[in-house]
Design goal:
Elements: H1 9-15, E1 18-23, H2 25-29, H3 39-54, E2 58-63, H4 66-73, H5 83-106, E3 112-117, H6 120-123, H7 125-140, E4 144-149, H8 163-174, E5 178-183, E6 188-189, E7 201-202, E8 204-205, H9 210-216, H10 230-242, E9 246-251, H11 257-262, E10 268-270, H12 276-287, E11 293-296, H13 298-305, E12 315-319, E13 327-332, E14 337-342, H14 347-353, H15 361-365, E15 379-381
Parallel strand pairs: 1-2, 1-5, 2-4, 3-4, 5-9, 8-10, 11-13
Antiparallel strand pairs: 6-7, 9-10, 11-12, 13-14, 14-15
Helix pairs in contact: 3-5, 4-5, 8-10
The structure holds glutamic acid (GLU).
Residues 25, 64-68, 90, 148-149, 151, 162-163, 226-228 line the site of glutamic acid.
């Protein structure tokens, strides 16, 4: 699928269907570490997001602020925190954070649902699929996923470290077409605008080249409360772009920050590098070693060639011991590899439902699951 591309941040936001909005600690909590959020600002953002939702857009929010809120609540002094203090602060602050967002959206009758991710949830395919299923279910149910890193149980080695990257991964997980990073900067400049008066604002970045990356280097532009600077925002735009998702860096401090973007306010739009499907195909085809093999009949092979999902009816054999979400090879009876995909079932489950119709899955297994053994979106044909 090729995605529509618009040359300005406002037009791209207007056209986006599924949007991830990332909110940094500095704009949500202000400068103080007093354990409070900027409630009227938050309610103005909730108004903006609710308006998008009324126009049939889906929204996911990735919010920072747990540590900033928690340190105030626990009475921790300003300055660097030890790992266990950060964990404690996030545990205390996350509740306050979720309450604040919940209250802001309750005013619009929107149910906010908290998802706390760890790095493993996006790096391991099975966990990634799990997170994806949960987030998609929430969107289907009309709720608004509210995502943060599960800082209470992460350590320096096993964390995203900043919510910009986390937000990009969230965008990838839900298949968003736009990531909006709201922060205390109004976009990318050719150099650090605080040091170099000749620095020019870039409204549109077609590709993240080494030159562009060099312009983002330097001190943390959101020094103080949050942890991500321009470098991490650029990294996020890159990850999102690779997943076919455009990105916008926009100033978030003022009220109704999304309306401001829609109205043509200053921001930087990053064009997505690829369509979502091709990024996904790379993920499936390139990065994973098949954990087993599913052998299919000619009818199923034909269906796969026509872009269909693999149904249990066409399965004639299974080799290996793989779990749900593992990458598997798909072969015909002659042993030719036709495709690679992510299995929606454990190998033993497929052995039990092979050759059967999808409506027999529930009586055979005793529980209800997806009708396809491999969903078409999780399948990459070998020859394609
Ligand atoms: N996850 C952290 C928090 O909620 C924020 C990380 C960041 O500032 O990017 O406090």
């Amino acid at each position: 699928m090729t995605r529509e591309f618009h040359a300005s941040a406002g037009a791209q936001l207007r056209a986006a269907r599924r949007i991830v909005v990332k909110v940094g600690s500095a704009i949500l909590c202000g400068d103080g570490d007093d354990g409070t959020v900027r409630a009227s600002w938050l309610s103005s953002l909730a108004d903006d997001i609710a308006q998008l939702r009324r126009a049939w857009r889906e929204a996911v929010v990735v919010t920072s602020g747990a540590i900033a809120l928690g340190r105030g609540r626990l009475g921790l002094a300003r300055g660097p925190l030890k790992l266990e203090e950060k964990q404690a602060a996030s545990a205390a602050g996350q509740i306050a954070l979720a309450e604040a967002w919940g209250a802001a959206f309750a005013a619009h009758g929107v149910t906010v649902a908290q998802i706390l991710l760890t790095l493993d949830d996006t790096e391991h395919r099975r966990r990634y699929l799990n997170a994806r299923a949960a987030m998609r279910a929430l969107l289907d149910l009309g709720a608004m996923p509210l995502v943060n890193e599960n800082d209470a149980v992460t350590t320096e080695e096993i964390r995203y470290g900043d919510n910009d990257r986390l937000a990009a991964h969230a965008a990838q997980i839900v298949g968003a077409d736009l990531l909006v990073i709201l922060s205390d900067v109004d976009g990318l400049y050719t150099a650090d605008p605080r040091r170099d008066p000749s620095a020019a604002h870039l409204p549109l970045v077609e590709a993240i080249t080494p030159d562009i990356e060099a312009s983002a280097a330097g001190p943390n532009l959101s020094a103080g409360v949050g942890s991500g600077g321009m470098e991490s925002k650029l990294a996020a735009a890159k990850i999102a772009g690779g997943a076919g998702c455009a990105a916008i860096i926009a100033p978030g401090h003022g009220d109704n920050p999304l309306s401001a973007v829609l109205d043509g306010g200053k921001a930087t739009l990053f064009r997505a590098a690829k369509t979502r499907e091709s990024a996904r195909r790379q993920w499936i085809a390139g990065r994973l070693k098949p954990a087993g093999t599913i052998v299919i009949d000619d009818g199923a092979a034909k269906a796969l060639g026509a872009g269909k999902s693999l149904l249990p009816a066409g399965v004639v054999g299974v080799r290996g011991d793989f779990a749900r979400g593992d990458a598997v090879a798909v072969e015909n009876a002659k042993g030719e590899v036709l495709a690679q995909g992510l299995s929606a079932y454990h190998a033993d489950e497929i052995r039990r439902i092979a050759g059967r119709r999808s409506d027999e899955i529930e009586p055979l297994l005793g529980y209800r699951r997806r009708p396809a053994v491999i969903e078409k979106n999780d399948l990459v044909l070998r020859m394609s």
